[in-house]
Write a structure and sequence with these properties.
The structure is a single chain. This protein has 20 helices and 31 strands. By secondary structure, it is of the alpha/beta class. Strands 16-18-21-24-26-27-30-31 form an eight-stranded mixed beta sheet. The chain has a five-stranded mixed barrel with strand order 9-13-10-11-14. Strands 17-19-22 form a three-stranded parallel beta sheet. Strand 5 and strand 6 form a beta hairpin. The longest helix is centred in the C-terminal third of the chain and has 32 residues. It is globular.
Length: about 725
């Protein structure tokens, strides 16, 4: 196998000085272990992403790393080692599906658990029969409906917060999830396996003025059969529940305080509101008045207690052996295959299963036995039918899924500002949840940013990990700016827009309302293989993602493009074509191997590759035709289509290609470098003040970045 596709654990013992035969659980001053998990495995979509997020795992989940004698000052792992141990004894693993296979959340769970058990065995000796308590956090799939998170995964979505010391910082769903589950599962039986989806935010505590200081209530496992599987659930409006799994109880609704474990009658997958209303014991009302119907939603957190976890482990050595790294290598090594590489073998022979749709369906409920006669790929999980799934519910809990770009923008702008009004197109139930989460998490409108020269009077905008400086400019209401180093003469960012990763533009930067723009560095190896050399001087290239925040990325048939109705856009293009202004054909948007029945924004070649110019700046002037479309519409005479020809002649890629094109490691480094840029801007402004004051010059002093920070603090502007 290629080195970059391997998750190495060979150096863990020497690098971290973890003695063979003991898995330390250091005690805190109160005498209790700080974490209930021996091993935390965080999965990524591919090997490159697993390497790229290692620094994020270290900084946001691991705290201060334990350094071995040979580790040097840079950390506790080498470039090829994606495993480390924290001072409290917890081992973290950054992983992915082995050898480029696509296993789904079910197969990926088996692969991650096998890897965790192998690490535990190496550390404790092969003869040790104990099993570790494992937390597996899946970082999500393609992030197709929220494309700005494709490069690292929705699990690492940046969230601006204020900490206990009133300092701003950036956190992410994975860090929040691990912290919360560490509290909830503080008493989980040894040897259990907990699986969670990291692209959600969960609250397992009552919301109130002091909610952020409350600890999550611990689940009591004393009376729970260790053969069972628990699905953590909270009540959710039917409009939310219809997009997720829903647990139907056996008739006893436990809506009291704290955690309640009850039998499950059935599990529905993405049921319609009508199906939920017509299903007995599915919907109920928390207010007792019959209004505001809710259902027990599947939060994505599943707990396999020790005996059911043992069955899960058995699968990795039998029917699902082809999902584990060791199993694939063993099967490939047996020979008799025509595949040229282990990667090709893994893609062909591995099983793709969904944890929530396939594996949970194999479990029995209070009203039915598990379907033991499943055939095909589902036959691999027949053994699970001996175990019963139960609801572990928390009636005061809450759930937010950051599934789409629009949901992300709404969550950040509503959650970070209680002053924002509910007149926007956000459902009241979602509005309340976003504000509750924002208050509990202490979301803030500014974090790690320097903003100067812009009109920031509009409501709701959020800026995080960015430098924005200009002579004049404006931030539209409810816009989000993240990971940008944007120093231009003029900056104009429209309302309800999202701007990410923009840098080195110079001149004028403008983006219209309800649009999303993201710049990502192109991988050098991809550039060399696909792009002709444009000059003698090699310059960095970027892929420019641009789409409407309300566009249905995987809608078929397509409804909108850049937020514009597709029929209106088609008519506008036809008129412009007749006038000789523009021309475009389907063959110039989709590759010929994409059938007409599968053509959507996800696989449309809409996103140009652009190169730094002679001034080391990115020229985004070609975007004016997209801004015109969004502002005027395709039939308006003010829509000049200026820049369209440049866009059309560029090399363009689709969103489905982005992960193969982008250098995620370079992007991660760039995001990490912005903190130093912010500090440099602040120090430069301080020197200017000092010069004016000490020199007694009659010159204006610019305090706008200080005012911007103060007004965005929760105590003042929140």
């Amino acid at each position: 196998p290629r080195t970059e596709d391997c998750i190495s654990t060979k150096n863990i013992s020497t690098c971290h000085q973890i003695p063979r035969g003991s898995l330390r659980r250091p005690q805190d001053p109160s005498g209790m272990a700080r974490r209930p998990f021996d091993i935390v495995v965080i999965t990524s979509p591919d090997a490159q992403s697993a390497r790229s997020v290692l620094g994020l795992i270290k900084s946001s989940c691991g705290g201060d790393m334990e350094l071995g004698e040979d580790s040097g000052k840079g950390g506790c792992f080498d470039a090829d080692d994606l495993t480390f141990q924290t001072p409290d004894g917890t081992i973290y693993v950054s992983s992915c599906d082995p050898f480029g296979a696509r296993l789904g959340s079910g197969g990926g769970t088996i692969a991650a658990l096998s890897e965790a058990d192998e690490i535990h065995s190496k550390l404790n000796g092969d003869g040790n029969n104990s099993r570790p308590t494992v937390l597996i956090c899946h970082a999500g799939g393609e992030s197709s409906r929220c494309p700005t998170q494709i490069v690292l995964g929705k699990a690492w979505t940046s969230l601006p917060v204020v900490d206990k010391m009133a300092c701003t910082g950036v956190t992410n769903p994975t860090s929040i999830l691990i912290s919360g589950l560490s509290e909830v599962f503080a008493d989980v039986p040894r040897g259990s396996v907990i699986v969670a989806a990291s692209d959600v935010l969960l609250l397992f505590r009552s919301v109130g003025d002091d909610a952020s200081s409350k600890k999550c209530e611990v689940i009591n496992f004393d009376q729970v059969d260790h053969c069972k599987v628990l699905g953590l659930s909270v009540p959710a409006p039917l409009s939310t529940a219809k997009n997720h799994g829903v647990f139907v109880s056996d008739g006893t609704h436990c809506e009291g305080e704290g955690w309640n474990i009850q039998s499950t009658d059935k599990v529905l997958q993405k049921p319609s509101p009508d199906e939920m209303r017509s299903t007995a014991n599915c919907t109920f009302s928390l207010d007792g008045g019959g209004k505001n119907q809710v259902a027990w939603i599947d939060t994505g957190v599943v707990c396999f207690l020790p005996k059911s976890a043992a069955t899960l482990r058995d699968l990795s050595g039998s029917s699902m052996k082809c999902c584990t790294r060791t199993g694939i290598a063993e099967l490939y090594g047996q020979g008799g295959t025509s595949h040229s590489s282990i990667e090709a073998f893994a893609v062909q022979k591995s099983i793709k299963l969904c944890l929530y749709g396939d594996m949970l369906r194999a479990l029995k409920t209070a009203s039915s036995q598990g379907p033991t006669g499943m055939t095909g790929t589902l036959a691999a999980v027949n053994k699970l039918s001996q175990h019963e799934i139960c609801i572990c519910s928390y009636s005061s809990g809450s759930f937010v899924h950051l599934g789409t770009t629009r949901e992300l923008v709404d969550f950040l702008t509503v959650g970070a500002s209680v002053a924002a009004t509910s007149s926007r197109d956000v459902k009241p139930s979602a509005w309340k949840r976003y504000q509750n989460f924002g208050k509990t998490m202490k979301l803030t409108r500014r974090s790690g940013s320097f903003v100067s020269g812009l009109d920031t009077q509009a409501d709701g905008h959020v800026v995080l990990n960015s430098v924005l400086t200009c002579s004049r400019g404006r931030l539209g209401a409810n816009c989000v700016v993240e990971h940008c180093d944007l120093r231009s003469d003029e900056i104009s960012i429209g309302e309800n827009s999202l701007v990410s990763g923009v840098r080195d533009t110079g001149g004028v930067f403008s983006i219209g309302g309800d649009l999303c723009l993201q710049l990502l560095p192109v991988r050098q190896s991809w550039k060399d293989a696909n792009l002709p050399a444009s000059s003698d001087v090699a310059r960095p290239c970027f892929v420019c993602l641009c789409f409407g925040i309300n566009d249905g990325i995987k809608d078929f048939p397509m409804k909108t493009v850049y937020g514009v109705d597709l029929l209106a856009l088609t008519r506008g293009f036809a008129t412009a074509n007749e006038c000789g202004i523009i021309s475009i054909k389907e063959s110039e948007i989709w590759n010929e191997n994409v059938p007409s029945s599968r053509r959507m924004l996800w696989n449309a070649n809409m996103h140009p590759i652009i190169e730094l110019d002679d001034k080391n700046e990115l020229d985004l002037s070609w975007m004016s035709w997209i801004n015109d479309l969004a502002q005027y519409g395709p039939g308006d005479e003010s829509c000049s289509y200026a820049g369209f020809r440049e866009w059309k002649s560029s090399y363009r890629v689709s969103l489905s290609d982005v992960r193969n094109v982008v250098d995620s490691s370079s992007e991660s480094l760039f995001r990490g470098s912005i903190a130093a840029a912010v500090q440099a801007c602040e120090e430069d402004r301080l020197r200017s003040w000092r010069r004016t004051c000490l020199g007694r010059f009659h010159e204006p002093m610019n305090f706008d970045h200080v005012r911007d920070v103060l007004l965005s603090k929760p105590s003042l502007g929140h």
